[in-house]
């Protein structure tokens, strides 16, 4: 009986261990946000402007969530621990996806950190910004408002 339990334990453990985690693209799955305005924000723990953008992103998510805004921050750190240390200092009140191999960054052809990509309710890229500038937050917010209003007409 012990041998049977040992075999079952090893079989179950090896089956669980061999299952692969979803790729960043699978984890992102933008199709589930059809009908929403999506702001993809690519960031890394070493990115200085990202420290400024996170509080603003939290504000935007809270302010516009009920109107259909979804913010997804895509982390580009190779080491998960670096991202977690950043998040302890700058908590995120929005969804996170981890992209340590840079698959999503490559797909979207990022030019710098952070990069924000604004998708309309049909999933089309409408606006994109490399960098985060506090002097431009009003402009960024106007773009969010524009995309949110387009879906309500």
The description of the largest β-sheet is: 5 strands, mixed
Strand order of the largest sheet: 3-2-1-4-5
What is the tally of beta strands? 5
Shape field: globular
Give the proportion of residues in helices. 40-55%
- The arrangement of helices and strands along the chain is HHEHEHEHEEH
Which class of secondary structure composition applies to the elements? Answer: alpha/beta
Average predicted confidence as pLDDT: 84
What portion of the residues fall into strands of 2 or more residues? 15-25%
Determine the number of helices (DSSP H or I, runs of at least 4 residues): 6
Termini separation comes to 68 Å
Question: What is the CA-atom radius of gyration, in angstroms?
Answer: 19 Å
Regions with little confidence, pLDDT below 50 for 5+ residues: 1-19
Q: In terms of topology, how is this protein built?
A:
Elements: H1 2-18, H2 24-28, E1 37-43, H3 48-64, E2 69-75, H4 80-89, E3 95-98, H5 103-107, E4 115-119, E5 125-130, H6 137-150
Parallel strand pairs: 1-2, 2-3
Antiparallel strand pairs: 1-4, 4-5
Task: Characterise this structure.
The chain is α/β, with parallel strands linked by helices. The chain contains 6 helices and 5 strands. The chain has a 5-stranded mixed β-sheet with strand order 3-2-1-4-5. Strand 1, helix 3 and strand 2 form a beta-alpha-beta unit. The longest helix is centred in the N-terminal third of the chain and has 17 residues, at 2-18. It is globular, with a radius of gyration of 19 Å. The model is unreliable at 1-19 (pLDDT under 50).
């Amino acid at each position: 009986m012990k041998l049977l339990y040992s075999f079952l334990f090893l079989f179950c453990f090896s089956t669980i261990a061999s299952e692969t985690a979803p790729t960043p693209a699978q984890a992102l799955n933008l199709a589930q946000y059809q009908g929403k305005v999506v702001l993809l924000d690519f960031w890394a723990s070493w990115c200085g402007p990202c420290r400024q953008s996170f509080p603003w992103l939290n504000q935007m998510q809270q302010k516009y969530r009920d109107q259909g805004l979804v913010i997804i921050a895509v982390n580009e750190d190779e080491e998960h621990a670096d991202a977690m240390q950043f998040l302890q200092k700058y908590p995120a009140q929005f969804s996170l996806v981890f992209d340590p191999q840079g698959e999503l960054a490559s797909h979207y052809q990022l030019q710098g950190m952070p990069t924000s990509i604004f998708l309309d309710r049909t999933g089309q890229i409408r606006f994109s910004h490399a960098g985060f500038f506090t002097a431009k937050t009003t402009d960024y917010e106007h773009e969010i408002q524009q995309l949110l209003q387009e879906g309500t007409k």
